[in-house]
Amino acid sequence: MKKVGLKDIAEHVGVSIALVSYVLNGQAEIKQVSKENAEKIKKAAELLNYRPNQIAKSLKMHKTHTIGLVVADINYRYSTGITRAIEAEAKKKNYTVLFGSSNENEETFAELVDVLINRQVDGLILVPVENSQEQIRMLQKAEIPFVLIDRNFPEIKTNHIALDNYKAAYTATEYLIKQGHKRIAFVNYKTTLFHLQERDRGYLDALKNGNIDFNADWLQEVNSNNRTADIQQSLDVILNLSEPCDAVFFATDTLSINGLKYLNQLKTKIPGEISVLSFDESEAFELFYCPVTHLRQPVEAMGKAAVDTLLELINHYKISKQVSLMSDLVVGQSCRE
Amino acid sequence: MKKVGLKDIAEHVGVSIALVSYVLNGQAEIKQVSKENAEKIKKAAELLNYRPNQIAKSLKMHKTHTIGLVVADINYRYSTGITRAIEAEAKKKNYTVLFGSSNENEETFAELVDVLINRQVDGLILVPVENSQEQIRMLQKAEIPFVLIDRNFPEIKTNHIALDNYKAAYTATEYLIKQGHKRIAFVNYKTTLFHLQERDRGYLDALKNGNIDFNADWLQEVNSNNRTADIQQSLDVILNLSEPCDAVFFATDTLSINGLKYLNQLKTKIPGEISVLSFDESEAFELFYCPVTHLRQPVEAMGKAAVDTLLELINHYKISKQVSLMSDLVVGQSCRE
DNA sequence: TCCCTTGCTTTAATCGTTTAAAGTAATAAC
DNA sequence: GTTATTACTTTAAACGATTAAAGCAAGGGA
């Protein structure tokens, strides 16, 4: 079964290709196609099971109705959430999503962006990886519409959608203080990523405003390529201080999962011996013996905002938009009351 | 910054477009392009930062170097695993993956397949949903290269890659019997999907060959759109039989997670009061108080097999390939020793 | 001198669409 | 009875690449 094109329909009906195109694009009225022909053309298209060749259309129209999405790691819960949200929103707007996962790797990220551009995506939604500033600047110079999501670089002015990480971390820490915790640890990645540093800042400010004297041992930094061991070491430190911590706040879900696994191993009782609070949610929390109190990101809203912003950019509204969203604190039973 | 095309390079160097095309496609030798020009052209391409327009190329070549992937639900652990595997393998072969999630919905599935075909993907890798037989037959009639993965319809002869579900369920059940269990329940979805029915068959045959008299109450069927409640009811049944079950085998990870949550709620001790075995793994198992014994699917091998098979089909080798893979039994501590 | 290679380059058709612009009857206006 | 208008329809040039086929010098052989 060979592909049927406009030509086939035109021949079948006995009119020109142009007429067929007009009718099938809903321009029958404006181009004053006779009702008779319009009818015949529609029937023939149906009969021959015509599928427009989007490739040809894209070439002519300089629009592919495709947006490219690069997430940091498809294995993150955040990634599947945001992918789903973006896909759903894009579909509503009649766009297709081409997507890839950089696995937090700079080269892979650059490659993916390249592939997507070569495929003529109309725009990009990106979760940038560490040290991808040059790549981002390149996109700006090339005037390719894009919006950053989840993360951004404060030194580069971009359109981006992100959580108010400072406030989120602040709120969570404040919550722990209100619950009566006096020695709150924070486990974060050692990173140059702004959004994670903001979480540090929120944590520290909340302590200060809560009149808690910060002890440098409380802020533990984990190296992402030595995660498991580093987390264990971090927890060993905060549990064995002369005054051990009574709460630990993990800066991401991956940190939480690893941390909780180790705490399980140590048979540390939660929240009896230590309270636990996590940034981001995880499917794994569902089966933990006590529901983990965590910050939930509004992925649907983020996805929608990202797609909306990108489409505005694509449609040549020269806009500058920085959307900052709030997280919800989902109270479980992993923090002392 | 406007897009640079072959024309721009040609003008810059002062040659024809054809020459540029030859050189940039590595046909310099065979087309006997002078070294001088070849050199100049390559330099100019670099200088102007030329990116070939894949759309135009695709239109001419009738090949997009894109494969379409439709998974059942991006939230399944299996989906992210297989997506990753397929992406990686496709990348090696220089193909891009366009993907979508049907959310187990028949219409969404059909729509996605349609969109992908309109985008002229070279072929499709599909996890078909229930009642999508017509859609599959349509693809065969249209001679569109595709391979089914994870699931297939025995009544339609297709190329497919799937687990040997019968053997996997058989092996797992046999394992439970060897561990001394006498009353083994199996919780599965109520479904017409062949691969899930095969799991039933494996379970039943293992019981028979293990000389265990099957009790109809042991095989519980859950309605997927009333999952939570149905699972609870199922567990209530098997736990409250005059002779309660001493093991429960869940047919999928989603069933396991829901089941374990309920067992947690009931404070049923695992494996003390009941042993648990799960098909598929889940991130959630990591934080369960005892590691869950489960069957692990070889997603990497499946992804590779799917891509390989599809590319063979695309390259006009008219093949018929049904790949059946084995799962591993990952022994945890959720089954009585 | 004429023709045939050889070595290199250009011309032009093509892929399947879109869409200005031009063409063509029939009807209306003067 | 011309000319204008209306109501359609077709022509043909794009879009940016690929690639047969044709073109064109310069050198070699007769």
Key structural traits:
homodimer, 337 residues, alpha/beta, Rossmann fold, 3 domains, 6-stranded mixed β-sheet, 12 helices, 44% helix, elongated, DNA-binding
Reported CATH architecture of the largest domain in chain A: 3-Layer(aba) Sandwich
Order of helices and strands of chain A: HHHHEHEHEHEEHEHEHEHEEHEE
Spans of at least 5 consecutive residues with low confidence of chain A? none
CATH superfamily of the largest domain in chain A: Response regulator
Oligomer: homodimer
Work out the largest interface and the residue count of each chain.
A-B, 43 and 43 residues
Question: Please, could you describe this protein's structure?
Answer:
Chain A has 337 residues and is of the alpha/beta class. The first copy, chain A, has three domains: 6-52, 434 Repressor (Amino-terminal Domain); 64-163 and 299-326, 3-Layer(aba) Sandwich (Rossmann fold), CATH 3.40.50; 165-297, 3-Layer(aba) Sandwich (Rossmann fold). Chain A has helices at 6-13, 17-24, 35-47, 54-61, 77-92, 106-118, 133-141, 165-178, 194-209, 227-239, 253-266, 299-314; strands at residues 66-71, 96-101, 123-126, 146-149, 160-163, 184-189, 219-222, 247-250, 275-279, 293-296, 322-325, 328-330. In chain A, the strands form two sheets. Chain A has a six-stranded parallel sheet with strand order 2-1-3-4-5-11, with helices on both faces. Chain A has a six-stranded mixed sheet with strand order 7-6-8-9-10-12, sandwiched between helices. The longest helix of chain A has 16 residues, at 77-92. The N and C termini of chain A lie far apart (69 Å). The model of chain A has no long low-confidence stretch (mean pLDDT 94). The A-B interface holds A 1, 51-56, 58-59, 64, 66, 74-75, 80, 83-84, 87, 96, 98-101, 114-115, 117-120, 141-143, 257, 260-261, 264, 282-289 and B 1, 51-56, 58-59, 64, 66, 74-75, 80, 83-84, 87, 96, 98-101, 114-115, 117-120, 141-143, 257, 260-261, 264, 282-289. The structure holds a DNA duplex (30 and 30 nucleotides).
